[in-house]
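This entry is listed as follows:

___
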Amino acid sequence: MTPHHLAARFAGADRIRDEIAARPADAADHVAQTRRTVDTYHPRRLDLRVERVVDETPSTRTFRLRRPDGTDLPPFLAGQYVGVFTDGTNRPYAISSSPVDLSHYDLTVRRVPGGRISNHLLDTLATGHPLTTTGPQGTFHHNPLFHGEDVVFLAGGSGVAPAMSMVREVADRGLDRRFHLLYGSRSLDDVPFRAELDALAADRPGIRVHHVLQEPDPRWQGPTGLLTAALVTQLAGPLDGRMVYVCGPQALYPYALGQLTERLGHPRRRIRFEANGAPADPTRQPHWPAGADPAEQVTVAARGTAFRTPRSRPLLDALEDAGIRPESACRSGECGLCRVRVLKGEVHHAEEARLRLSDPDSGYAHACVAYPLTDVELDVWGRAKTGRAWPYVRTSVVRTRGSGSNIHRFR
């Protein structure tokens, strides 16, 4: 070994060098060890089996998933989700079970009229069936350093799933956390976890639960209607800087934001929304370009193939329909796994897109919330059959964008 030219400047350098030379050779495969650790805690895929199916309500079921060999699943934070792969695509579902028990994950699925995957799971998935998911991921979880120990959760419909995981963790760990759940449901007969939530609230002084029904019912004497600013104040008391979580159907988000910020003056930084899919109708967002007919079809070219798709269909959905399946997870514009590079053409991003500051200049789009306005050519990041990543095509990209616009033009 050639001595380093600076070694002589350090006292004892010769002794240390001799000691290092006398050590036995390190034959450990550190790359493989690191890979095993990463795969244990952050696996790309989990091959699970349905151990149990629970009918929560007429429209909602909970699927309990375990590993076939019975070993523990990767740890997760209450509020996180896994992506479920089925029917040629994937969808994220929040884990509703407690992170204390890693022998299983519970996924609570609610039937959505016209929903492709929710209906498929509810109609076909049964005990003993295999199911492939991603590992746990997502940013919608409690951080005591920034969120404090006094939180309010506004949930609607299936949005109670992450709240259920958080409530169960508070109970299982005996946390000194004040958790106030305001849970809006359409009818009295369609309230998942009602008995368990009420029992936890009765047993734990730090947990408070208020059910709010949208439809009046003679059997119900509690609050009805929407989660208005007045009702939030009445049930939860003054917010006073408390962290507020919001999860539910898409219509709940702009409504809750208006009630919390405009009516109650609650700071936006103290409100956390769970990502909840691409917009049902991107043309209803105010920045959809005027004159762009959403039904008109354009051509998408990627991976040596081309196909036609309407402007109103997210690029990710259109690619999957054509048999091209980029890596994806949240399908809500947040995680960035479905990023594709736009080599030519114009795409429009929905408000949900959480782009990196460099993405527009570099030509990247989040395919799950990006819509082709013109014929486009894409470089799609994915996985080859060998498991190695597809390389990006090197190309020069010129971008022009009008002030305040979400339209990105590439050539």
Observations:
- Confidence is low (pLDDT under 50) at residues 383-405.
- Residues 160-173 form the longest helix (14 residues).
